[in-house]
Amino acid sequence: MRYAEPQTVEEGLSLLATTAGARCLAGGASLVSKMNAGQVAPGMLVSLHRIPELATTTETAEGLWLGAMSTHRTVAAEARLCGAMSVVRHAAGQLAHPAIRNMATLGGSVCLADPQTELPVALVAASARVEVAGASGRRTVPVESLLVGAFQTSLAPGELVTRVLIPRGVDGAVGHHLRYSRVVADYPTVSVSLVLAMDRDTCRYARVVLGSCGPVPLHVDAADARLVGTRLEPGAVAAAGRLLADSSAPLDDVRGSAEYRRMLIPRLLGRALSQARERAHV
Amino acid sequence: MSDKVSVSLNVNGKTHALSVAPERTLLDVLREELRATGTRRGCDAGDCGACTVLVEGLPVLSCLSLPARLSGRAITTVEGLETGGELHPVQRALVQHGAVQCGFCMSGIVLAAKALLDHNPAPTVEEVRHALGSNVCRCSGYARVVEAIASVGGRP
């Protein structure tokens, strides 16, 4: 195994392009675990920790650009992630456990595309956009178009994620993340990320995304539409929950059966909406 | 055949110049090269917290950390907590509360607790529980561990 520490994105790209079996090393939380288990043995580790650009957070009129090497701990402590953007901050502060949050990164989580982990779910709820660098330059894509399957992204070989835009989103909105797990530090049985805006008692905007309910974060336009214009009364929440449950494709595993997960969806949606309103005092 | 990477590891205030294969973890190097065996190997997957060390004061899992990336950064292991033959207050409290049990998870718990108390000298029981979220005790005796750590900050 060879090892390199590029100082710029361009230098990193050229290493990825010229070395067979090169893998980017971000926080290492998943990659090193797989290496320890003998599941992967990259020909070269391209460590991204010496590229200053990847650890930079920039505020613009659109929102906040978070560098791909930002740890979950950094994201959880980012006070500028307020309003609708706070869904990302809230998820980053709860997922996994403290030592993992000190190591694992935003870019690593997006590129791993693990259907059980929560940051991608919150990014979809926040309508985040991801900047990807490759041989032909840089492109920015919605995070949903990057996550194409369980542990699968639409990244081409030799591309890497440089930063993620968390847009300011709807005025007066609040973001909220709810995880339901049997053990606090474990992967959730189901997770709910949402952005909500209310006009007095009436829902003006809702974007609900579920984790652990299929190969990619589950977002159903019709479920959002079912909530908008309502007072989030039990009937509306149950109907939106049914739309989500009908589109879900959860697995049976040690954390819960598929049937149990489908039953959880409407209940957790109601709980998440109540908690979000409580946080927003609406 | 792997490349060897030259690293200068700062462990408990002492600098060690080493040449290591890039895939070797900090846990491997601490136990096998530096013979600092207080850091335990539990799962090698980042699930159990037995191998917790501090890097620049923050708890990280040494089984998932590569020394190649840690040159010059301050690493603290359980061997670095005693001062002048005196146990760290967290270690003393764990002994006094009968919380040590088999001891396998203790190095990691002690370091997670030290990091918490360095940032938050009087944590609540709830804050202690959150800070120990990365550490599994297979004796499953968490109650006294939490009590002991909370007592250091003066909380019952």
Can you describe this structure?
The complex is a heterodimer of chains A (282) and B (156). Chain A has 282 residues and is α+β, with helices and mostly antiparallel strands. Chain A contains 11 helices and 14 strands. Chain A has helices at residues 9-18, 31-36, 72-76, 86-92, 98-101, 106-112, 119-125, 143-146, 221-227, 234-247, 258-280, and strands at residues 2-4, 22-25, 44-47, 57-59, 63-67, 129-134, 137-142, 147-149, 152-153, 160-167, 174-180, 190-199, 202-211, 218-219. In chain A, strands 4-5-10-6-7 form a 5-stranded antiparallel β-sheet. The relative contact order of chain A is 0.12. The model of chain A has no long low-confidence stretch (mean pLDDT 97). In chain B, helix 2 packs across helix 5. Chain B is of the alpha+beta class and 156 residues long. The model of chain B has no long low-confidence stretch (mean pLDDT 95). In chain B, strand 1 and strand 2 (14-20) form a beta hairpin. Chains A and B meet through helix 2 and helix 5 of A and strand 4 of B.
Describe the SSE topology.
The complex is a heterodimer of chains A (282) and B (156).
Chain A: E1 2-4, H1 9-18, E2 22-25, H2 31-36, E3 44-47, E4 57-59, E5 63-67, H3 72-76, H4 86-92, H5 98-101, H6 106-112, H7 119-125, E6 129-134, E7 137-142, H8 143-146, E8 147-149, E9 152-153, E10 160-167, E11 174-180, E12 190-199, E13 202-211, E14 218-219, H9 221-227, H10 234-247, H11 258-280
Parallel strand pairs in A: 1-3, 2-3
Antiparallel strand pairs in A: 4-5, 5-10, 6-7, 6-10, 8-9, 11-12, 12-13, 13-14
Helix pairs in contact in A: 4-7, 9-10, 10-11
Chain B: E1 5-11, E2 14-20, H1 26-33, E3 52-55, E4 58-61, E5 74-76, H2 89-96, H3 106-119, H4 125-131, H5 142-152
Parallel strand pairs in B: 1-5
Antiparallel strand pairs in B: 1-2, 3-4, 3-5
Helix pairs in contact in B: 2-5
